[in-house]
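Minimal example, chain plus tetrahydrodeoxyuridine.
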Amino acid sequence: MIKLEENEIKDLIASAIQVRANAYAPYSKFRVGAALLGTDGCIYTGCNIENASYPVGLCAERSAFASAISKGCRTFRAIAIVGGPEDSPLADCPPCGMCRQFMREFCDSTFPVIMATSATEYRILTIGELLPESFGPDTMTSEEN
Ligand code: THU
């Protein structure tokens, strides 16, 4: 797994909690924040953005990646995710399948996904654990295929 300092983890979780306040989730009332650490040292954040046409809504994780990539950062060290129903304590919020695949495009299997339930409580799984046997950019270019 990519080596992360404890203060980097805490900063990412704090950023995810902060950006979650901006979530636009009038339909599910489930608010999610994500904070993505670029190899440039910057933290890129995103929140979920729902839509009256439900499938059009965007998850926090993909929103964070879109923010980073549109600013020119394409390589990453970790992501922190926080989520839960409005006006309730944070719940354990693993990324949805679509977000796992989206992240896989830009991260190798060792990329750490921090799922936090408070500023100090979290668990970490790698994208390889969350999305085993995955299809990625390397699959497209592999000589064996
Ligand atoms: N959501 C995320 O933002 N990230 C996930 O990985 C799971 C789900 C959002 C989508 C929707 O706005 C709300 O949570 C309820 O599904």
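The CA atoms of residues 95 and 126 lie 12 Å apart. The first strand starts at residue 30 and ends at 38.
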